[in-house]
Every structure is written in structure tokens, then in C-alpha cells.
Design goal:
Length: 419
């Protein structure tokens, strides 16, 4: 018993590092391709049409699902599951692991989701409508498709992983929440390798477009590439997107022992709750979440080189976040702010993980990718250090702080240190 307690104490003191990243984004299907697109100003937003709602705009992914799944499994499963399977395999490959050589009982899967099951339920109702709503025609695959653990479970089934798997429902803070959960489970010695991050299939449900439209929060623009425009005076809402970002997390000592390339180290994180409104963010709570993450990392605000903002392109959401960040980073003249949604739209449960991935390349090239489509910055959003339209080379980047906030007032912040 003493030996077990001692081992756990050692794990709790462990440093947690990122050794691999797998992404499926509207403008790139690998860590390197995503980075190249961001530095080149390449948007992933395109015209899109969905039943009942009609024509709109969306961030649509174009990855090869058949690379890791049989056609039968794609039909039986979900789009979120396919995104997850692709990203998990790509992340493991990026980390230099051979799946067949790993102890699959010591691997854990922690996938953040905004919601799951809406797509599948809408599809089934659409189908039985053709049979006078006779539920005899309801698919027997519906229940395993719609259970909340589905995306993580599909990854486990595909890869033969027998350690813990589950999803973390954290609205649009879910990508960060998945990373935090993975890090914590490594510290608790529940696994030796964590597959962690977030996925989203949101563009395949007409309900999300209809709901944002009814809120007056769905972006419109004649040029799809200019529709997502956080911080701009003429922004008019969210571009819904699908995607995934999954990370391989390991203990530092394990990564060093196998000679793995380390992409970054998780040195700080925090989650809190506004408890003030269903959708309106609370800048004071967001600033407090940043402060808690900095305290855990033993850093000062001025130590942060890049803040990856959550800003979605809504009028109130962007200005409220900027108000919170002015408070959190007051006087930090060498801290730069950017936004990835301006390229790919809002990937919901995957947003935090994908946006963080887009910024981690700065450890290698020293460049802050810009927020695109800021033609006329809103005075309420013109925070010092905001990088607009053109990339900025700042030299050495040591710390990236990633904001990810969601409905019902859930806030998450993750801080990554250069290896």
C-alpha cells in the first residue's frame, strides 16, 4: 500500500507533454498542413446546403475516412466517430508510436464534445417520415450512435484500446476540457498514454443552423472566405464548422525515455463557470479563469507570448472576451492575440483543440498567425497586441495560452510551454 501511494505521489508531480497531434480541419488534415494554411491566410469556409434550412456557409472537412475505417464501419457509426478515429490515428503516428506495440490497457481516450446525437436523431426522423412515422423503420444502430460516449467509444473499438474512454460535455470549451482531463488522468496513473482533445460533427444537424439564425447569430457574407470575422466592426455571427483535434499526451519522463519529439508541455490550466446567463459571457469570470491558469503555471501575464482567443464573430461575445482579456493582460506589451475561427469557423467541441494546434507551430517558426477579415476593427475589440490580417514574426515564442468558452457560462484555459 505504501509503495502504491508513493507511486501516485510521483505521478501527481509528473510533467505532462504533447508528443503527437492529429487534426481534421476545414483547411488542413495534419498539424503541418493546418499551420501552413493559417500562415498563408487560407480559409476553409465554403457554401453549404442542409435539408430544411437550405443554403448557408460552413467549415467542411475533407479527410480520407477510409484511411482507417472500413466502409461498413463508417455506415454503422457517426461522422464524429470518423473524425475521431482519423485524428487519433494521425496523432499516434505523429507521436512515433506503433499501436500494435503498446499496452492498450494503459491507454485512455478523453474526447470533448459540444453535443452528440442530434445529427443521428434528425436523420432517423427524416427517414421514418417516408414511412408515415412507423418506428419499425427506426435504425437499430441509433442507440450506440447517440450515446454520449460514442465518439470516444468508436475510437476505442477501431483501435482496440481497452483502457478508459469517455467524452466530456463542455459546450464549446470541450476541446480544452478533453486536454485537461487527459493530463489529470496521466497524473492519477489511470493511463500511460492519453488520447485527448475534441471533435465535432455539428454541420450535419440543421437544428444548429436554425437556432443560431433565430438568435441573429449566424454569419452571412457574399464571399464565404470572409464570413467569419471576429473583432471586425461588421461581423454578424458564427460560421458553423466540423472538425477534430486530438493529442497524444504522455508523462515527460516516458517521452524522454523513448526519445520522442516533444511538441509542448501543459504547464497550466483552469476551468470555471460564469453562473450568470445561458449565452452571454461574463468577462470577469473569463479573466479569473486566465488568472487561475497562470497561477497553476507559476507565470505572470506578461510571460505569455500568444493568446489564442475564443471569439466567435458575434457582437456581444467578442467584445465581452476582449473586455476580459484587457483586464487579464493589462500592461503586457509583448503579449499578442489572434483568432483561428476567422479561417475555419466555429468547430464547437473541437474548437479549443484545433485552435491550440494552429498556434503551437509558433514554437518552431516564431510567427503569430493573424486574425483574418478584420477590415475595420471594432473599437470594443481593439485590444493591444491584436494581430490583424498579416502574420507577425516575434522571434522566440515560449508560452501559448488558449481560451475556449461555451454556453451556460463554462470557461476553460490551457497554457502550453515550448519544449
Amino acid at each position: 500500500m505504501i509503495a502504491d501511494s508513493s507511486r501516485r505521489d510521483d505521478k501527481l508531480r509528473s510533467r505532462i507533454v504533447i508528443t503527437g497531434i492529429g487534426v481534421a480541419a476545414p483547411n488542413g488534415n495534419s498539424f503541418d498542413e493546418l499551420r501552413e494554411s493559417l500562415l498563408a491566410g487560407k480559409s476553409g469556409v465554403s457554401p453549404y446546403e442542409i435539408r430544411y434550412f437550405g443554403k448557408t456557409l460552413a467549415g467542411v472537412c475533407d479527410f480520407d475516412a477510409r484511411r482507417y475505417q472500413a466502409r461498413r464501419d463508417i455506415r454503422r457509426g457517426t461522422r464524429a466517430g470518423s473524425v475521431g478515429v482519423y485524428c487519433a490515428h494521425e496523432a499516434l503516428k505523429h507521436a512515433g508510436h506503433d499501436l500494435e506495440q503498446l499496452d492498450k490497457s494503459r491507454m485512455g481516450i478523453y474526447v470533448g464534445v459540444t453535443e452528440h446525437g442530434n445529427v443521428e436523431t434528425e436523420n432517423e426522423i427524416h427517414e421514418i417520415k417516408n414511412y408515415d412515422y412507423d418506428t419499425a423503420y427506426w435504425s437499430h444502430h441509433h442507440n450506440p450512435r447517440t450515446v454520449a460516449n460514442n465518439p470516444a467509444g468508436e475510437i476505442a473499438l477501431n483501435m482496440g484500446i481497452v483502457g478508459p474512454h469517455y467524452t466530456i460535455g463542455a459546450a464549446c470549451a470541450a476541446g480544452n476540457a478533453g486536454l485537461i482531463q487527459g493530463a489529470q488522468m496521466l497524473m492519477l496513473d489511470e493511463c500511460d498514454i492519453a488520447i485527448a482533445g475534441g471533435v465535432s460533427e455539428s454541420i450535419h444537424t440543421f437544428g444548429i443552423f436554425a437556432s443560431f439564425k433565430s438568435q441573429g447569430a449566424l454569419a452571412e457574407h457574399d464571399d464565404p472566405s470572409k464570413a467569419s470575422r471576429p473583432f471586425d466592426r461588421d461581423r454578424n455571427g458564427i460560421v458553423v464548422a466540423e472538425g477534430g483535434g486530438l493529442y497524444i499526451l504522455e508523462r515527460y519522463e516516458d517521452a524522454v525515455e523513448r526519445g520522442a519529439p516533444i511538441i509542448g508541455e501543459i504547464v497550466g490550466y483552469a476551468m470555471n463557470t460564469d453562473a450568470t446567463d445561458f449565452v452571454m459571457p461574463n468577462p470577469e469570470r473569463q479573466a479569473q479563469c486566465v488568472a487561475r491558469a497562470l497561477k497553476r503555471a507559476k507565470l505572470n501575464p506578461g510571460d505569455i507570448d500568444i493568446v489564442s482567443t475564443h471569439a466567435t464573430g458575434t457582437m456581444s461575445g467578442d467584445s465581452q472576451e476582449c473586455l476580459g482579456m484587457r483586464t487579464a493582460f493589462e500592461g503586457c506589451e509583448s503579449t499578442y492575440f489572434n483568432n483561428t475561427k476567422s479561417y475555419i469557423g466555429h468547430c464547437m467541441g473541437a474548437a479549443g483543440a484545433l485552435e491550440l494546434a494552429g498556434n503551437l507551430g509558433a514554437f518552431n517558426d516564431g510567427v503569430v498567425h493573424p486574425t483574418i477579415n478584420v477590415d475595420n476593427v471594432d473599437p470594443d475589440c481593439d485590444i493591444p497586441g491584436l494581430v490583424k490580417n498579416e502574420a507577425r514574426e516575434i522571434g522566440n515564442v515560449n508560452y501559448v495560452l488558449n481560451n475556449s468558452f461555451g454556453m451556460l457560462g463554462i470557461n476553460s484555459v490551457v497554457i502550453i510551454k515550448k519544449p
